[in-house]
Design a protein that fits this description.
The chain has about 375 residues and is an alpha/beta fold. About 50% of the residues lie in helices and about 10% in strands. Helix 6 packs parallel to helix 10.
């Protein structure tokens, strides 16, 4: 079976990269941008860094900001209606995964109106046309939504998140500018960074992993591990490292999938509105312990990439424990909690069944039953 790699047509990296947005819009002869950005980014004038460039260049745009932290079906539906009225011919998505996921869903439905029922996009929907062209500008270093074929929407009515996987939703251009991330608060920097680490470790150990994606994931683990503490302290080096590391992780996991740390995190987000990165950070070391006996020698390389010394002299049991310990230490150092008090015993059946049905679960290196997932959820109670 052939292994497939899908990436952006073009990506820009480094401080000041957002200046390229104007050049790309002109080169593609785009007429009007539909700017998707969440209310906080607009309030704190982060999005203005991009719209000021559009103003200076005389490029037309309209802003859409009905976007929640865990974007909902309603956010997508109102966005589709707003896009139709706007006369726009491309999307600029500014923000974290929420803005980019909303933009992807809007763009897919506009190009494939037979999927106007947002729920019909769950899983691998058989869309026929590429979505409205998207220029993705991340403001968090974590989701890598700017380079993935995935997006996640919350079904509030059914208290669940659903994952959509669609090659047609890939942003054509990614603009990864660490200066767009410099205003991220400490807690958001920490949680999105742990999301990125979870992408890298789950992508490295997933059933579909292969040599090229292993290369991406190991480098991402290395960069994230050495950069996240600095990013939380708001050092330029930390910000730059995380901007790159999270993108490299996205280059990998988008093409091979994830595992149950993500399926469980999706469920926690849907039921308790837990920030996605926090949920990932809680679940990652617990899931790593569960998966360890199905990962061969990979935890040795994870430990090495995270800066653990002397791994070649360790036994398999020792380097597996060292890899998990390194993940726990990083999470503690950036002040992510390890317990979620909101979970009740009476919730466990629903949580486990939802996580078991999640699109990320089949990629886990070790098959997990509903009962297994219940026991894993108990570990963060």
């Amino acid at each position: 079976m052939a292994n497939r790699i899908m990436l952006n047509q073009t990506s820009y990296h480094g401080a000041g990269a957002i200046a390229e947005i104007v050049n790309e819009a002109k080169a593609h002869d785009y007429k009007k941008a539909f700017v998707c950005s969440d209310p906080d980014l607009i309030k704190f004038q982060v999005s203005t860094k991009v719209t000021d460039l559009l103003d200076q260049a005389g490029l037309s745009y309209e802003i859409y900001s009905n976007i929640k932290a865990n974007p909902t079906i309603e956010n997508v539906q109102t966005g589709v209606a707003a896009f139709k009225k706007s006369g726009a011919d491309y999307i600029i998505a500014i923000g974290g995964g929420s803005s980019m996921d909303t933009a992807k869903a809007i763009g897919i439905i506009i190009a494939n109106p037979e999927f106007e029922d947002v729920r019909s996009l769950e899983g691998v929907a058989p869309t026929r046309k590429p979505c409205v062209p998207i220029i993705a500008v991340p403001t968090t270093a974590g989701t890598a939504a700017e380079v993935t074929i995935n997006y996640v929407i919350t079904d509030v009515e059914r208290k669940r998140k659903f994952v959509c996987v669609d090659p047609h939703d890939m942003p054509i251009i990614a603009v990864v500018d660490p200066e767009m991330m410099s205003s991220m608060p400490k807690g958001l920097t920490a949680s999105t960074g742990m999301d990125a680490l979870t992408h890298a470790i789950e992508g490295y150990t997933t059933k579909a992993a292969w040599e090229m994606t292993d290369m991406f994931h190991l480098k991402a683990i290395e960069i994230i591990s050495r950069s996240l503490r600095g990013a939380v302290a708001n050092t330029p080096e930390g910000r730059e490292g995380m901007a790159l590391g999270q993108y490299i992780a996205g280059m990998g996991f988008s093409n091979v999938g994830l595992g149950i740390a993500h399926s469980m995190a999706h469920t926690l987000g849907a039921v308790y509105d837990t920030p996605h990165g926090v949920a990932c950070a809680m679940m990652l070391p617990i899931v790593m312990e569960y998966n360890a006996d199905c990962t061969g020698e990979k935890y040795r390389e994870i430990a090495r990439a995270m800066g653990v010394e002397g791994v070649d002299a360790m036994s398999q049991e020792e380097y597996r424990k060292a890899a998990v310990a390194a993940v726990r230490k990083l999470s503690e150092d950036v002040e992510i909690p390890s317990k979620l008090e909101a979970i009740k015993e009476s919730d466990l059946d629903f949580l486990a069944e939802s996580a078991h049905a999640d699109a990320c679960a089949p990629g886990n290196p070790k098959d997990a039953s509903v009962e297994d997932l219940k026991e894993l959820f108990r570990k963060i109670m």
